[in-house]
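Q: Monocarboxylate transporter 10, please. Structure only.
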Amino acid sequence: MVKKEGSHRFWKTKETKQKDDEDLEKRLTDSGGKTIQDANAFNPPDGGWGWVVCISSLIVNGTVMGIINTFGIVYVKMREHYAKNDPEVSLKAAFVGSVCTGVTFFMCIFASISSDRFGIRQTAVVGATLGCAGLLSSAFIERMELLYLTYGVLLGVGSALVYSPSLVILGHYFRRHMGLVNGIVSFGSSIFTIALTRVLPILLETVDIKYTFICLSGLHFLLILFSLTWKPLFTKKSNLAHLTLSTESVYQHCNDCCTFTKKFLNVKIWKSRAYVLWTVSLGVGLLGYFVSFFHLPQYTKDNFPDEDGSLLILCLSITSGVSRIVFGKVADLQGVNRIQMQQAAFFVLGVCTLCIPFSASFGGLIAISLLMGICDGVFVCLLGPIAFDIVGPKEANQAIGFLLGTFSIPFTVGPPVAGYLYDLMGNYRVAFHVAGAPPILGAYSHNFPGVTTSEEFASISKLDVFSSTTQEGKMSIIQNTGAASGTSSEIVVIQASDILNLGSKSRVAEPDIERQAMLSEEDEDIPDSLHNESMAKDKKFTGTNSRYAEESTKSTMLSEAVSKYLDNVESVKVSEA
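A: Structure for Monocarboxylate transporter 10:
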């Protein structure tokens, strides 16, 4: 016989559990001045040092994307410098830029993993250093094939390691102005693209391609200094609650140490149906996204030989940059659904691509380019905010990294397929018709319930009564709620991800709480024959039913909080009046 006093206690009574929670909260409060709820809560400052981070991210974003977007200028000089009677010099030179672009977006996956494991700032510094080394070594290369390694792989990896963190760090400092800040940062690519379009031809003509690469490496070196301003405000293990030696935390820590995928990959984001469907939709839509960007100059040369095709790209870049700021601010407005904005941008972009062959004048092409630039700006400035809406700020790092990684496939496949159709047909009519279909299909794919529902909850969560009322109005809500309930009021923050997660588990049966209570209240001896059986059942019971009980309690709290929120809306209006 095993005496209960000296044996392991399998289940805790309510009084014991409550006492343990109070002791735990007291230890946390005494050590860090924060409760468990305070430790798990995170409120970005929405300003202050965040604006310095915003400007530095703009410069990083502009440098990386500016070098990629202006490769066509370097491509012309590269053909002349490395020709040496090589009949395949055009193919080899074009492949250098293709490798750089593909590696940049593909390696964003590993950049996000590295940011989680080693830190955002450390990853960005390493990336800026590698990019600088890649451009500097390219200046001393005399064989085209070696540029695949230096300019293609080394610069591509470095660009990815510094580019992906530049988007993720914004979520550490902003929430209410998330759309505007992403618009400002992505506007940097338009600024640097326009600037490098004017500067690179001058450098290539005066100092040749060697010293042009050296100048670009110096620009990449400055990214090391700018990335040092990125101080993360939270990490996955920064919460004080993770420091407690609870059964669940110890089990999770041991499991993470023993499982490779859980140690390096955030598999939680792939359990989100909204994120998976959104990523697939974007991958489909981007198959024809860059076709017009790459082939509009050649189309202009074939159909309007007296006009300058680069003017279309300039018009596209200008409207793209302006729309990133304008629509980034619009996306922050209350009740705005960012998914629907991005969906409309994809649809209009696809229609514009289909209409390019029907344009009978160069002025029509300019109008189409201006409209396509607006769509491009809307699409780019909403990538970060939507990712934060769907998976939350603590999961957005790898979510953005994997999202950019999937872009490498359509970015690499789309333009070459259009070029193949051009060589096959002798014109761009079929190529542009085929390229216009994927964006329209991608826009339709955004209609899946898993995507739209998530963003609808996110748009509702922006309706923050406490942030939009006076101090008197806030005190009125607290006093009225406390008087009605007879107890002190508690402000509960409701997140869209919590509601969605509860919705997905709403069909789970309630746990057998009575069995737990009965066993915990027994004071009799536990037979030896039942000891091992109880230990086995304890693992299964505490690992499943207790989790369901916690979710049930959380669901009740959320329901009560929503009711309080709706009841107090009128009180806020009266207080403001």
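A: Brief note, in case it's useful. Residues 528-567 form the longest helix (40 residues).
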